[in-house]
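INSTRUCTION: Work out how this chain folds

Token vocabulary: learned, describes local backbone geometry

RECORD BEGINS BELOW THIS LINE
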Amino acid sequence: MSRLQVLHLEDSEPDGELVARRLTTEGVAAQIVRVATLPAFRSALAAGGFDLIISDYSLPGADGLQALAVAIELAPHIPFLMVTGTIGEEKAAAALKAGATDFILKDRLERLAPAARRALAEVAERRQRQLAEEALRQNEAQLRAVFDGAPIGMTILTADLGFARVNAALCRLLGYTVLELHERTLAAVAHTEDRKDLGQRLTRLFDDGVPVSAEYRLRTKADEIVTVKITTALLRAQPDAQAVAMIEDVSEQKRLGSQLRQAQKMEAVGQLTSGIAHDFNNLLTVILGCAELLSDTVSPEGREDLDAVGVAAERGREMIKKLMGFSRHMALELKPLDLGALLADMANTLTRVLPASIKVRFAPATGSQVVIADAGAVEQILFNLATNARDAMPEGGTLTIVTRYPPTTRGPYLSLAVTDTGHGMDSATLERAFEPFFTTKPAGRGTGLGMAMIKSLMDQQHGSVTVESSPGRGTTVECFLPLAPAGAVRSPSGEWRAPTAVRASGTILIAEDEEPLRRVAKRVLEREGYTVIVATNGSEALDLIRARPVDLVISDLMMPKMTGLEFYHALRGDRINVKFLFTSGHAPDDLRSSPEFGTILHMMPKPWDVPHLLAKVRELLGG
């Protein structure tokens, strides 16, 4: 243990030695510095390093009270023991009142060591208390900083649900100042439908200490509703009970959760519709192919019937496009597209399909209107929006189609805005506008897939879509399509070339697991002069092509044993570089991202008809 550092003010050397011996006898290990005058005492005390002060009362030219004043001035934390030969009660009381720790008579020095120990213990205790108080102040300052700077709302609630203390985040959330919240209660700003449950839970908190963790709706100063999660903990019980409450705005979380559920719903429905569309595509392809084959063998009256079959099949094909577009599996051709030219081509069509009571107005943007999009998808979007506008304006109105450049903050896009003057939508309907199967139309007049399909098609074209509407003020649907890079060339019209009368030649391998489709495709191509061999799956097709060369492979994507893609990669592994035409209702991303796509690897969407098939084959074989 370190020695006690003692400053002793004593002008008598024998008395100084007496004090030193007494401390040693009592077991107090001390290093004593003795000074004889008040100036020397001041200097020594100013130098510091002492644990205890012992002072005589009677000093040359001074007294113990003056020494005590110097000690309080320079070292108020050091215990001060006054040791004297004689001192009256009045002087002793004055010394203690002035701040002396204790006084000891020189003829009772046996009290010196206990008094020193007691004084030092009191100092140590006082020091610990000061350290604890300082730590408490620091903790309180830290908690105050955390409370005030927390990014979520925090408050100290009283038992009557008053705001005893609030932080800046809560003020921002509710729009009130600190003083305004002090004048209110949590129950007062709660939604009327939530107030009772919130009050009951908080009563249990203050009565039984049961914490609260639940979502409620609060009303802001601007009369807006925010959904919050309130989490509480009891700070102290009655009387003067208080609880801390964290009030977190979860409106955005709930919105994102709703979007996630919506996405999951669309994904599930999309998988269902994709499966239905795949089978329906195969049926339509057989119907269209057989109708074409029969057209040259029947009478004129029979051709009219076959034409009716073809029209019905075409309507089915459009239905499939809707299903595939909704499920994000439609094979889109994203190419430079002159949106202005497409709208000009559609002007007459829209005018014909809409009733005469609806006026169609076009307002194209000035400058380039070339975007990266799929022409068929854009047409489908416009037809859907025109149909919705027609239903929203049963007594007539104006349909305005505008192309414009949005603010640069949105990015390099061209806006296609379609506005009607119909009855509009309220906020509840607007929130569900893109929800699949949601419709406000009477039974039998709407599927609820139109807007969901539009959003899906826009997503696939790397664009976006917004809706603005209010009751009685019409609706504006704005689609943002990515602008094509400078110098991009407008995409071809997409029309198929009519078959020429020149006899075709070449060997074609058809890989298709559906027997009716194989038979129709084989008959159509053989009728044109091609040599056709067929396989029921990719594995069988691979064996055939290894045995004899072919000029073109036409393959389905989904087949048993070996899929079309697996067949294609196996051919490349064998270094067999033959032109390859996939037929499917959708083109997977890994197919379109292939560096060979568009050169030796091509895609033709199902359902195809005979003119499309023959035109594509002639294009690839150069016929």
In short: The domain at 507-621 is CATH 3.40.50.2300 (Rossmann fold).
